[in-house]
Structures are given as structure tokens and as C-alpha cells.
Amino acid sequence: MKSKINDIIVNFLKHKGINERISYVIEYPKQEEFGDYSTNVAMVLSKRLKKKPHDIAKEFVEFAKDSTLFKNIDIAGPGFINFYINELAIFDEIKLIANNINDYFRPNVNQKKIQVEFVSANPTGPLHIGHGRGAAIGDSIARILRFVGHKVETEYYINDAGLQMRMLGLSTFIRYKQLLGIDENLPEDGYQGEYLVDIAKDIMVEYGDALLNKNEDEAISICQEKAGNVILKDIIDTLKTFRVKFDVFFNEKKLYDSKEVDASIEFLKDKGYIYEKDGAIWFKSTIFGDDKDRVLRKSNAAYTYFASDIAYHKNKFISRNFDEVIDIWGADHHGYVKRMKSAAEALGVDSNKLKIILVQIVNLLRDGQKVSMSTRKAQFVELKDVLKEVGVDAARFMFLSRSVDSHLDFDLEVAKKQTSENPVYYVQYAYARIRNIFRQLDKEYGYDNIDLEKLKSKEEIDLAKSLIKFKDFIIKSEEELEPYFITKGLLEIAEKLHKFYNRIRVIGSNEIKERLFLLNSVAGVIKLGFDLIGVEAKEKM
RNA sequence: GCGCCCGUAGCUCAGCAGGACAGAGCAACGGACUUCUAAUCCGUGGGUCAGAGGUUCGAAUCCUCUCGGGCGCGCCA
Fold it and tell me: Which helix (DSSP H) or strand (DSSP E) does residue A354 occupy?
């Protein structure tokens, strides 16, 4: 619908001899009395054509008045052009939706090969609620991009080569020794969580006290591997219940084993972006706008994370040839963005192809008090416990009901209530109400010979409009990589459905066929929206 | 100290390539179930868009400063 209006505007511009792009907007007016759509094009053209906005608007109305799309076009305020859509045109759109939902809502895009990397939590402890938000966002973005028609691969990056994993092994080994009666305390920066005691018990079952006889380095390595595997499996299980699936798990270690880290440094060196100072190897990220140069290999010959991250992104872009890579990080990594983009440029990759989404923190509240979270200190609420308490649907919807860059307050006490305070029920209920009507039909009603002109009430027309508008929400969510537009669109449809349901009867009415036809499309669109955010459409509630 | 993000209704947030009287949900208050599920609907109240300047015909939106909050600034990971 929007694009049809845009076509008319573009024709008008051509008619006025303007062929280049002009930055006007077509929007939904805030007030209903200003029509269904509105454009500021007359005001934008005012300066250029040296005419009053009002006069340009008049010319436009004259130009467009023959279109069957509108029942009226108004000029209002300082020169807004307001469009009132013809009901027939609205229901023509509904027919298109009914004909093929996916075709109708899939925007035209050039297919790209896109990787979405998210969660990527080190397997040093269970996932907490903050990871849940990243998981919900990453997974939904992947679903949306896939729906739109891109080739999408989701990936989880495991930092299994660094000191953190070593610390995990050491902490587990100490727990193991404690179980065997050896008095030794965890180091200050060790992992305190109880889950390591359980893992240590498993190790004891498997090895008895044999690890004590091995050299410490080897014993820690065994513990590290065991703990890492157990925790990773736990993470994967949790993600699975959360309906999040990864196509690829990528190990950092692999980048070292395959010498890709060295190769990346060589690659940059050949281009002249590398120098040595104080016994360390540096990357000249300042040429690409970073605040300072960054160390890749320390003077003690150990590589920094940044070195393996460069190799990782070289692997993504060059070895695996992704057209676009989306990294989803926690907001506390924002200082890392410029660095990573510099690295992309240095690798010869247009840094616009690397999209980094910073997901703002989730504030967890318990009894109104903020709970601070730290994996190391084991002060956190596990994602899997939250899922058990509030359910997958509620959790996903809540994570996706705010824009990515706004803080999210997740109050456990409220979330646990499972009352109507949670908007997911509002939408699910709308769907269930429709399904319920269909279940109670006394016979099959075909949709041949239907006369949609019979749907005259405001409730029916508004409901139909909300479906058409949903397309804009999909486009926006895809363009801005913001799944919350989907939840927003769903809430709007649900609102119109409930209003309809309260005022209009379906079963027993003269318009039953037409209304069922409309409701069938509504249910289909809600189902589509739910699919895009990974929420279940319930038949009954 | 430097840099980034943010400050909109009691609470949580939309709106921010400048435009029409500032929006939604929740909470509060008052109504609507012999009806396809009231997990719903209808109505009411509630805001000097942190503050001060500036640009503009027009600023929540752009610029500057102030105040307040969060985060990042390592040869850490």
C-alpha cells in the first residue's frame, strides 16, 4: 500500500520534471482524522519549486485524484497531504494476503549470504538472563533475514583458547582436590559456582584420585576439557529449550591450530599495518580511525584476543565469503567496535558489511532490588530457571519488546505472575479467539462468492488495515535489524482483533463468510509474526 | 581526564534524516460477562519531552553548555 502511494508520488515528481531522489516521507498520521497515510512531500518541494506548500499540494491532489486507491485526499496543516484509503482497495490487499501470505509480506531484497553470530558465551558457566536477550535478538534477526529471502547462517563462537578457560580448569581441579580432602582454596578470580563441584564429582567418578598423580598442568587440562564440555552441553540444552538453534559452533582454538592467527598477522604485515615495539607486535588501527594502535602479540609471545578476533573475521569474510556479517555483542563491548571495524578495513573488507549490534544490559530485579550479575562470583539467575518460571514465549516476547539499545528491566516477580501484565498473552489470546471461532463452526464455509464490501464497520476496516501495516513493520525490522518492530506490529493487530471481537459477532451473522475470510488472514499474519520471533501460536488458552 | 550511550506520564518505554494539539503498555479510578473464552472491551485522570541558550517560518527531534545516570578507555579476557 505504501509503495503504491509512493509510485504515485514518484510519478508526480517526474511530471514536475524531478527525477532524482527527494527526501520526503510517507507516514501514518498520529491522529486518525488525518487519514490513513500522510506525506510531507509538498513541504519538502516548497523551497525547490519556489512555491507555497499548499499550492504544490493542490497540484498533487489534482494529479492523483483519479486513482482508485483513495476515497479522499486532503491538504492539511502547513501542507501535509493526507490520504484516505478506499475500503475496496483495502480489501483488495486482504485478498492478496489470503492468496499467499509469505509473498505478500516478503519485501524485495537482493539475496545475500549473511552470518549472524550471537550468544558466543565462554563455556565457563551457565547462561544467565543477559545472554537470553542476546539469544532472542540474534535468533529473531536470523529468522527475519531468512524470511526476507537471505541465506542465513547462525554461529556460536567459543573462546576456548584463552586464560579464562584455563582458570575454569584450575577452579575445577581445586574443587576436585577439595572433594578428596585436600585443603585448598579457590583463587580470588576463580569460578566460585557450585556447578563446578558437580563436575568435579563426575571427574572423581571417572578418574578416582588418579589426577593427583599426574603433573598439575595435565590434570588441569583434563579438568578444563571436561568442565568445558559439560557446561557447553548445558548451554546448548538451554538454548534448545529457548528455541534457539545454531548452524555452526566455531572454536577459537581452531584458529590457532590452523595457523590462521599467524596468517592474519602476516597478511596485515604485507599491507604495512603491523609494527614491532617493546617486543610486542602492534596493529596500526589508528590509520582507520581507532584511538590508538592495538597489540596483537604481547612481549611474552602470547596473542591477545584481538589477534584471534581478526583471524576469526578474516575467516568469516574471506575464507567463508559472507556478504554480510552481523555480530551481536553485549553493550559493555562498545569500546571494541571501532577496533574491529578498523581490522575489517585493514583486511580489505568494507566495514559496512560488518554490522555490530550492541545489546543493552538487562537489569534483573528481585523485590525491586537490582541483582548484580557476575559469572565468576556465581551471582546470577540462570536463563534456564527463568524459562522454567515464566515460559519460553513470555521470555522471548519480553526480550523482544524493547529496542535493542534500550535498557530492559526484567522483574522476576512480575514475570513470574503470568498475568495479563505480560503482553504476549494479549497476542496469543487474539489468535486463540480466532481459532476458537473456527473450531465452533457448524460446517465448512468456502470463500467463493464473498462480497467484502459487506465489511463496513470501523472495527473490520481497522483490523484489515492493521494487517496491511504489518508489512511496514517487517520491512523496518529487517532494515534496522530490530525484531521489536515485529512485536509492535503484533500488538497492534491483536488490539484491533480484540476490539472487533467485542463488537462484532461472526457466527450467526449474515456476513459470516466475509468475516471468516478476514479472520483467517488475521490468524495467518499473527502466526507469521510469531514465527519471526520464535513464539508459539496457541490454539487454545 | 578522554570517548560513547542515555535523561519523554507514577513505572517501563515508543517517537528523534525538524513539521499538524507529545504516544503506547502497565499502574490508578469508573463502567461492560444469560453472548464466538472478560487473559477482553469502553471511559477518566496524568507530561514546562532534565535545564539553559542557539539555528529555523517551525525543535522532544539539529548545535553548544550545565546538571543527572550508565558504560568503555591495558602488552585483561
Answer: strand A354-359
